[in-house]
Sequence to fold (277 residues):
Amino acid sequence: MTFTEQLALARAANRSMLCVGLDPEPAKFPAGWAGDASRIFDFCAAIVDATKDCVIAFKPQIAYFAAQRAEGQLERLIGHIREVAPQVPVILDAKRGDIGATAEQYAREAFERYGADAVTLSPFMGFDSIEPYLAYPGKGAILLCRTSNPGGDELQNQRLEGSEGKPGERLFERIARLAAGPWNRNGQLGLVVGATYPAEIARVRELAPRLALLVPGIGAQGGDARATVRAGARDGAPIIINSSRAVLYASAGADFAAGARRVALATRDVLDAALEG
Fold:
């Protein structure tokens, strides 16, 4: 089953566009576990168990595991997701961006070591930085396009050279065109577009009407969930709206998993209601 097919099934089964980002910070763990990096798997597995029926995907951020020497716990966690929520795809948030033999090793890491269904990539070295991932049939490659951080303007919103006195397209628009066109050789590319820029989500959707959009930035980062859905949701075009901290740390107590479930369900329902106007 391809990543795109997995998204469609998870969307239908769980009635959800919500992706829960798994960004474990031991300092924020509940009492008894606080500061203990050996409990990363336990914490994240509890979040997965509490939210597995109300998400379209899970998105572990590799840096949060690697910084704590917890890559083995990440492998266990993805294995756990496979056991308890086989219908929910896993996006490895790694933002890799190298080329050649190094990119081949990063692809192997994402898809063979961790068994992810998709990986986030930086496309700024061109198609060479994406091609090695396309050697894995059915796996998704989600490219940074218009990110939610203010500094994204410094590159992504800059205009390329135009012709006949007309302004050229912006860099994020060129990335969207390439991803929807010649780069999408296996039909599995997607784009990252931040929730803090709904008008630009709409523009990316116009340029890439069929691609999956991964949208971080709702919840703790302040993106408007309703505006995000209205800008990017289209029939048959997947949208994956990520929330991390707002779900993971909904409660600092022993009921942290129940708190995560409450916030995940409420967010899912807000997103779904936006489809209806």
Notes: Residues 3-275 form a domain with the TIM Barrel fold (CATH 3.20.20.70). The first helix runs from residue 3 to 14. Strands lie at 18-22, 57-60, 91-96, 118-121, 140-146, 189-193, 212-215, 239-243.
